[in-house]
Please model this.
Amino acid sequence: MQVDAIPLALRYKIQYPDEFINAIKRGEILATKCKNCGATYFPPQRDCYNCGKNEMDWVKIDNEGELMTYSIVFQKPQGFENYDNYVIGIVKTKDNISLMVWIKGEPKVGTKVRLTTDGIRLIGEVIK
Ligand SMILES: [Zn+2]
Model:
């Protein structure tokens, strides 16, 4: 099936901090944690929405979580046309952080997944 689409041109580049990018290259996922109130943010935030302070620590996200929901992507966005169908899921970690990740393995709501990266994107591997 062919669907007409309007080409999407990105106008803005998002600048992620080096700490975050370097961690992904190592297979780790980082969040920020407020030094004042302890609120944790993913994606990382510079300012705390809870208390208004702006002093954050980098913290490693627990690498195990639960698959809350998922979607199989048949109609790929621009730049992903040549990919096989893939699965995007929302995983919630034990420390209550929700992440959107690519799911590897047979997806099932409620199953445990191991969070990692492939050096570029976040991956949730279904644990059998
Ligand atoms: Zn705070």
